[in-house]
Amino acid sequence: MTNKILIIAGGGIKHLEPFKVEAEKLGMDVVVDSLSNLEYLVEEGKVFQMSVSGISLEEFALIYIRLVGKRQENAYLLVSFAKEKNIKVIDQMFLEKQPVNIPLTKGLETKFLVQKELPIAKTYFGKLNNILKRGEKLIGFPMVLKETTSQKSKGVWLVKNQKELEELSDRLKDLQRNGKVYLAQEFIKASQRVRVLVVGKKAIAALTRPMKWRTVFIDNPSEGIREVLNPIPEEDATLAVKAAASLGINIAGVDIIHEDKTGKAYVMEVNPAPRWDSVNKETGVNVEREILVFLKDQID
């Protein structure tokens, strides 16, 4: 039985090189590659062979899809073939939710988290005209308007009143016509955000960072703390692991906030392709090694 592992990403693979270094130290057979190098051959209309950079996918016991990016078609082909050949795929979500759409849109992510009874800020999903008409009554001001496919805090706006909502909606209406979708969320008065890195069923590290709008509508916000949370607060660790598992994500960065006055926790985002440069640098946790050990456990 093969123990070879493929770690693959949607574009360039420079960020995957640390996996090769750690794999060598661990004595593991690991290949890193790009989804752009995926290829298949059909012969005589019935023999289907798929490979990446000339290596047959059937040589691998497990495939870890680090990031899809714009390679949705390639990822779908890869996962479909892996399922046919009983090759394990990480994250589990790729197998459960087809066609491949990773990361999930915020609309879908919120729906799935709510179904698993995770604490989520009050949310209204609908077209801009409906948010204009019903947003104040259903969500109230201030509210946060989000583009459902936005990444890295782009496509997110703080809206203070109806006039600002009307002006913003007017600016976004052309984008909506071109397929952009939006949702409105309650503004939670939280000064800090906690990012928990989850690998498998374990929270391996956590950092806290100041919230973008902590000085807005918050009485006596914190001065803005940037530090490692060690040990990881038990509530945050448990919530992060549950949130990732509820979406079928094995490796994730989970953002959690706590309302300043009540301490109530909310899951803000579950990122299936988090960056962990700061985690490696600030916590001393070797994330690549942690992930490789987890992957190895899946095939042993």
Give a summary of the structure in a few sentences:
The chain has helices at residues 17-26, 72-84, 93-96, 106-115, 128-138, 162-177, 234-246, 277-283, 287-299, and strands at residues 5-9, 30-34, 38-43, 47-52, 55-56, 62-67, 88-90, 123-125, 143-147, 156-159, 182-186, 192-199, 202-210, 227-228, 251-258, 265-271.
Summary keywords:
300 residues, alpha+beta, Rossmann fold, Dna Ligase, domain 1, five-stranded antiparallel beta sheet, 9 helices, globular
Describe this structure in words.
The protein folds into three domains: 5-96, 3-Layer(aba) Sandwich (Rossmann fold), CATH 3.40.50.20; 122-186, Dna Ligase, domain 1 (2-Layer Sandwich); 192-272, ATP-grasp fold, B domain (D-amino Acid Aminotransferase, Chain A, domain 1), CATH 3.30.470. α5 (128-138) runs antiparallel to α6. A five-stranded antiparallel beta sheet has the order 14-13-12-15-16, with helices on both faces. Strands 2-1-6-7 form a four-stranded parallel beta sheet, with helices on both faces. It has 300 residues and is of the alpha+beta class. It is globular, with a radius of gyration of 21 Å. The mean pLDDT is 91. The chain is built from nine helices and 16 strands. A hairpin with a 3-residue loop joins β3 and β4 (47-52). The longest helix is centred in the middle third of the chain and has 16 residues, at 162-177.
